[in-house]
């Protein structure tokens, strides 16, 4: 069976034109239709070939909020004039990072502290467990506030 499969050639009985048709057929014989509309050939084009902006149904303004967020040049934690609240400052101190550090630096500090204070590494030390809870709480707070 392996020898037969190894030597089998689907195209052996076909001519060059038939092989070209099979290889270039991207729909594998299924019926297709042109998805372009209008004279210009682009979706939403009018009779002059200009594209019209299609209005989307967006009752929750998800797309509008996404577009606004994409327009912001830097994240909320990168601005030098951002007001740091007391809870934010405590969370940053708990992880040993500054407010201007990048999200990657905050994540790295979090990972290092979790590895350092994990109960499996410290033999079940209760003070280490409490410190780990505080570190996780601080990281989740920073994550919720947009620092990470």
Structural class: mainly alpha
Note the beta-strand portion.
under 5%
- The N- to C-terminal Cα distance equals 58 Å
- Helix percent reads 40-55%
The total of beta strands comes to 0
Average pLDDT across residues? 78
Low-confidence stretches: 40-44, 73-79
Largest sheet: none
One letter per element, helices H and strands E, the order comes to HHHHHH
**In DSSP terms, counting alpha (H) and pi (I) runs of 4 or more, how many helices?**
6
- Tell me, briefly, the overall form: elongated
Our Rg estimate from Cα atoms comes to 30 Å
Describe this protein with a few key phrases:
148 residues; mainly alpha; 47% helix; elongated
Structural features, described:
The protein has 148 residues and is mostly helical. It is 47% helix and 0% strand. It has six helices and no strands. It has helices spanning 2-7, 16-24, 62-71, 86-95, 103-117, 126-145. It is elongated and about 80 Å long. The chain starts with a helix and ends with a helix. The model is unreliable at 40-44 and 73-79 (pLDDT under 50).
